[in-house]
User: What shape does this take?
Amino acid sequence: MASTRLTRQKQEFRRFLEINRDKEMTVAEMAELLKASGSDMGIATVYRAVNRLEGEGILIKTVTGAQGKSAYRYAANDETVRSCHRVFCTCCGKTVDLTYKFTDKLEKNVSDMTGFSLTDHQLMFYGLCSDCR
Ligand SMILES: [Zn+2]
Assistant: This one.
């Protein structure tokens, strides 16, 4: 039954991230919030989930606070990030969605180059925002 529990926790964690998508949180803060909402996910489980989602590009690591703690912000999930383009400030973590449409041509080029029939993509630009420059 361990896998069922794992699946449920995965779903629970993704829902939690959806709800808190505007927040930047450390692993400890996530574990605390989850516990407060009645979850049985311990900090070790949250830590593993965060690592996995960071690897998948769903969570983005940012450094926050005077102690330079690692915090994470929710960047994407496969259902909500369809053809999404953003620019991300590597200093303060500010994210701006880009409305400029250059994707059709880009997808065509990638498709022509690789022979792939594309179903989805994500594009993130990194830099410094006007406040941090
Ligand atoms: Zn900035």
